[in-house]
């Protein structure tokens, strides 16, 4: 496999650092709870019960463990209602390793605070996004001691707005200091992954440390090959998400690209959640019933095996690639 990183540096989880070799089968782009703190406080969703949600997540993760999954990367960051204390309750009871992320989820504008804080702005001072990302990565989130293991960034229909570019620039600084991977939300139909790679690469990020998320949504394999040939990893990570992506398209792309020798730069996941205010459980049950954290294990992997994808390539896409990516780069960790 290309770009393998030594397993010397540990990977940060909710329960503390673990050797990268212990990560095992990893779902690289998932969520536990997608929330909206102001709405949740003032206008609670009728389906949201935190205690029941924790129990449901623990049960789901225990089921994943029995299916062979050992690590889940929770890419819920500020902008999506990240709550490390709440997820910590799940991590304390589940055998699966849970990894936290830093970053900011916006596809257009940041909250008003950022308009006045930072170099050249009304209040001034250093770039707060860099300080926040580094604090999450090096000290822990919100005083919990839970250190993030991944940086999450977004580009979508609005493109590289000033605030989106600002988040990418801050992510590049934090990535190079800590050596953790950058995992993105992209819009493959608009080919925004290429914008992400250009901006991050120009800022000095080693593109072998980048996962362009949601790439598998598109059947445009020329675009996927372009991302891969830049050295990046692509996320085929909306399996079961029927209202956005088609499992047949994603399976066909994986089969084709693996046969072409790209299995060392593909990761597989669902972008699912045990509760999301955006698409609540009752809606999911009716409109996307297979959009679950166990869909890959139960349905997709058997399809890939039947289509001729080798056991070695499946191991790369489920285990080895995640281990390589999640191991902090030696240069930055030194």
TrEMBL record:
Establish whether keyword Transport is in the entry.
no
| Keyword list, A-Z | Hydrolase, Metal-binding
Q: Which residues carry this modification: N6-carboxylysine?
A: 152
* Family classification: Belongs to the metallo-dependent hydrolases superfamily. Phosphotriesterase family.
Record's protein name: Phosphotriesterase homology protein
Q: What organism, scientifically named, is this protein from?
A: Nocardioides aquaticus
